[in-house]
Structures are given as C-alpha cells and as structure tokens.
Amino acid sequence: MGDANSVNLKFELGVSQEEPTLVPPAKETEKGPYFLSNLDQNIAVIVRTIYCFKSDSKGNEDAVKVIKDALSKILVQYYPLAGRLTISSEGKLTVDCTGEGAVFVEAEANCMLDDIGDMTKPDPIALGKLVYDIPGAKNILEIPPLVAQVTKFKCGGFVLGLCMNHCMFDGIGAMEFVNAWGDTARGLPLKVPPFLDRSILKARIPPKIEFPHHEFAQIEDLSDTSKLHEEEMLYRSFCFDPEKLEQLKKIAMEDGVLDRCSTFEALSAFVWRARTQALRMQPDQQTKLLFAVDGRSKFDPPIPERYFGNAIVLTSSLCSAGELLENPPSFTVGLVHKAVKMVTDSYMRSAIDYFEITRARPSLAATLLITTWSRLSFHSTNFGWGEPIASGPVALPEKEVSLFLSHGKERKSTNVLLGLPASAMKIFEGLMQI
After folding, report:
1. Which has the closest alpha carbon to 47: 142, 168, 135, 152?
2. Nearest-5° angle of CA 224, CA 225, CA 228?
3. Which residues contact 244 (CB under 8 A, 6 or more apart)?
4. Quick one: which of 111, 154, 157, 155 has its CA closest to 11?
5. How many CA atoms lie within 13 A of 426 on its CB side?
6. 331, containing H or E segment
7. Order of strands across the sheet with 93-97?
8. DSSP E strand stretches across 359-433
C-alpha cells in the first residue's frame, strides 16, 4: 500500500520559474463568444496534471522551444483555449475567443527527476511547483483555460505541468488535445480536427426534466462528517492488481443475486462501502455515490469523433449508510449497476435540461465522487522524447473525490487515490486488506 505523503521528506524540490509569456495561435482565429454546454457548466473546476519525460540523447535543451511552437500551431485548431472565460448575459460560463493565447512558463528544478520519488501519487505541495498558478486569481474567470509550465531537470529530463479548466473538456477530450499537441511537436499532421460545435448539446426548448436527478440532491449531514474535515486530511493510494479485482467480483457474486459484475462496479461498490464505514456514518445517514459516465456513444445520434467538450454525465446511487453496510456486497454492486444502466440519451438530455431550469450544481454532502482515468491514454503522449515515464494528477480537485487510475506496465491494475481525515483513513486502510 503506497503512501501519498512518502515523498522523501529530507528532500525539498526547488523550482525557479521565469516570467510567464502568452502563446497565441500561429494564425488568425475566429473571435467572439464560444458556447459552452450545460455539461461543461456543471464541472468548471481546475485540473492540474503532470507529464514526466526522461532525458534521451538530445537532452532537454530544445524542449521549451519545441513544446511552445507546437502549442502555437495546435491552438489554431483549438482556438477557444487561447480565449478567456467570462459570464454570458444569461449568467452562464462562456469563452470569449480573444486569441490572447495560453499562458506559458519556463522553469528549472534544482535536482534530478529521480530525486522526486513516486510522481504518480498526488502531492499538491511538491508536485504543485511543477504547475504554474496565476498569482492572486480569486476565481476561475481569472485563470486562463490553459496554463502550461515546462520544468527542466538537471538530469536532462523535463516535466510538462498543465493547469486546465474542466469546462473546456472532459478526460477524453483533454487527452486528445494533449496527444494532438505532441503529434504537432513531432511534425505529424492532425488526422481528425476537433469537433468544436457544442450547440449539439443545447437544452431543449422548452426544457423537459424526465428523471429524478439525485446527483443534485442536497443530503442532510446527520453524521457531522463535515466535522471530520477539521482534522488533517491524509491522501493515500491503494493498488488493486488483477487478482484482487477478480476477488472483489467473486465476493460480489458469491450470494448468487448477480449474474454479472464489471470490474468498475465491484471496485466502486467496495470503496463506497469502506469509505462510508470509515467515516462512521449514522445508519440513517443518506449517502450518495456519484460517478461520471462517458455519453459519447450513448447519445442518439452519437457524439461526433473528436468532440471538443464535456460529453460525460454524472449518474448517482443513493441509500442510507445502514442499508449499505448491513446488506451483502451484491446489494451495493446492484446499486452501482443500476446507476450505469440509467445513462441513456433521454436521461442525459434530461440532466442538461435540469441544469437549464435550476442552475443547480451536483451536491457533494455525504457523497463520494468517483472519477475514472484508467481508460485515458495519458501515458501515450509523445512530444519527441518518447512516452512519459510518469503522468497523473497533482492533487484531487475536491476532498470527496476518489480517482481510479490504471497502473503497471500492462495497465491491468487500478490505483485508487483518495483523501480522508486521519482517523477515518486508519479505519479505511484496515478495510482495504482483503
């Protein structure tokens, strides 16, 4: 079991950053307002990721120039990323395509890449130095949609640190963008340009809410779980190898209630139950599981290839902590399965319309929000220095979020990252020993 705080404590990463510059698109691009759908509005959080590249025979001398030039070229296709977020007349987030450009920072580290230790575990303090934060930004409107930092290390390796707003794209879209940026750096043509028109996900007129949307439900915190957050938060990573994942599926199916069970369903149910127990929720405390489902193929007609935007929708399971812990594992897995099944074209259209009418944000009270990055090929990004030796998030966006990442050479294992108050983490670690 890994420990996200186990970065060598005697060693402190020092990074000196140069003044930020702006990288505008290489050619004149369209100006004016750019529409963001309600699925984008819902999820406007900053996501910070890093990509670590080992030195090869050519070292890192050209890394800044190559990555910066390629960024300027790729922004011609992805021009909204060179704009700025603003609020429309109807009070929604929109992009003002000004062509100002992405923010770019060059930096140098005082050490070798290897000195940092395990970069696959979120560590907002150390790894945060590899991503540039806009000084004094009070809200997301003051942070450009794309901020990039290239940090050169003494060994000849370098790290690309990105700070991107989730309202610009979901994980699949972000991965396509970064991979296209890498291809451009290597002089390869863009095979399929991004599909920029987000109005295909506009709300219906008039809007129609056809489903109960529990993802937005405010839950009363009977268990005072918010009190626990006054304790120090600990972040840990738990690795589930293929054998362990199989075992979880077996446990879920042993009472004969389920005839099938996916790895995601078994793992989500296991983590949800264990976290509920670790937080010592009262039996009558309602608890919610939220997770994102990729709607690309579930929309009718399906979302076009290379859709630049969020095509994920949140689905949820809701029940009392008592039900969750007193019933066998098959009960929880059944709830997760139902939530997956619920996502259809009409459910997603209803979620878009729900936001149109209520402007509600998904509530995170007594909630676990699982976000799955295990299918995203962040590890295949190549700017000309080969694939990254490590890549991943710098921090978890919210304390209720748990991240599933693929792990290992074959990517058959799953790393579960989450944060809990110290006393709850002690219980949770014990429950992970299956």
Report:
1. 168
2. 105
3. 434
4. 111
5. 5
6. helix 329-341
7. 32-34, 93-97, 84-87
8. 367-372, 390-393, 401-407, 413-421
Question: Does 1 have pLDDT greater than 50?
Answer: no
Long-range contacts formed by 63-67: CB under 8 A, 24+ apart: 63/150, 63/152, 63/158, 63/383, 63/385, 64/106, 64/150, 64/152, 66/185, 66/383, 66/384, 67/148, 67/150, 67/160, 67/181, 67/185, 67/383
340 residue type, one letter: V
CA distance 29 to 123: 37
Instruction: Give the side-chain half-sphere CA count within 13 A for 39.
Output: 27
Contact assessment for residue 414 and residue 407, using Cβ atoms and an 8 Å cutoff = yes
Is residue 42 within 8 Å of 363, Cβ to Cβ? Answer: no
- What residues pair up with 85 in beta bridges, in sequence order? 95
Burial class (CB in 10 A: 0-12, 13-18, 19+), 141: middle
Give residue 4's pLDDT band: very low, low, confident or very high (50, 70, 90).
very low
Confidence of residue 196 (pLDDT cuts 50, 70, 90): very high
Residue 46 · residue 163 · CB < 8 Å: yes
DSSP 130: G
Looking at residue 216, its pLDDT comes to 87
Cα distance between residue 12 and residue 26, in whole Å: 38
User: How confident is the model at residue 8, as a pLDDT?
Assistant: 41
The span from the CA of 260 to the CA of 270, in Å, is 16
Tell me the torsion sign for CA atoms 124, 129, 130, 132.
positive
Query: For residue 74, how far is the Cα from the chain centroid?
Result: 22
Q: What is the pLDDT of residue 7?
A: 42
pLDDT digits (tens, 9 = 90+) for 22-76: 999 999 999 999 999 999 998 888 999 999 999 876 778 899 999 999 999 999 9
Q: Are the beta carbons of 335 and 252 closer than 8 angstroms?
A: no
d(C-alpha 56, C-alpha 386), whole Å:
8
Please state whether the predicted TM-score (pTM) of the whole model is above 0.85: yes
The answer to whether 13 touches 113, Cβ cutoff 8 Å, is no
- The predicted model gives 369-388 an average pLDDT of 85
Query: Residue 3's pLDDT is what?
Result: 45
Between CA 46 and CA 169 the distance in angstroms is 11
